[in-house]
Amino acid sequence: MEGIRKKNAISKSKLVFMVLLAVLLLIQLVRPQKNTSDSPAGKAFVDTFQVSEQVNAILAVSCYDCHSNNTKYPWYSEIQPMAWLMDKHVKDGKEKLNFDELPSYGSRRLNSKFTQITKQIEQDKMPLTSYLWMHGGARLSNEDKKLLVDYFNSLMDNE
Ligand code: HEC
Predict the structure, then answer these.
(1) Residue 144 pLDDT more than 60?
(2) pTM of the full structure
């Protein structure tokens, strides 16, 4: 009799697995709102500051996903907890810098943002390392960096 009861009992590891699976399924239901808009990412910035196509192309690949009102979401953004991590990056990123909002800033605030941007680029702090794991093409080459830094420096000289 003892033997039969043991056979039917769910083993501890099976139970842990089932609970984990249930949690994994349940968290799929909690989806953060996406950061998207009808206007292309960075459009307001590009229109206001006569951004060259070359500079805009680099920003589009390397920065706009976290620093604009329009994120390009990859397929795995449908899966939790990936979407939560992305949501956090976009929220924190936009709080510090949103290219789509720069046109509404006064010159002092703009200068401070442009200084921050050149610093982040020169110190290789952006794009975030975790972003580069999945977006290898977003890594800035030395030419990209020079182009961006020269461009943002030129905006400050005009102030
Ligand atoms: C994966 C998302 C992501 C990408 C891509 C990204 N950033 Fe960020 N960025 C963040 C987050 C999150 C923060 C705020 C936290 C921090 O400073 O680490 C931030 C902060 C910043 C700041 C403010 C730093 C400060 O002084 O507080 C600047 C400037 C910046 N990013 C510029 C850029 C530029 C330029 C690019 C493209 C070359 C870029 N970022 C790409 C997520 C991102």
Answers:
(1) yes
(2) 0.90
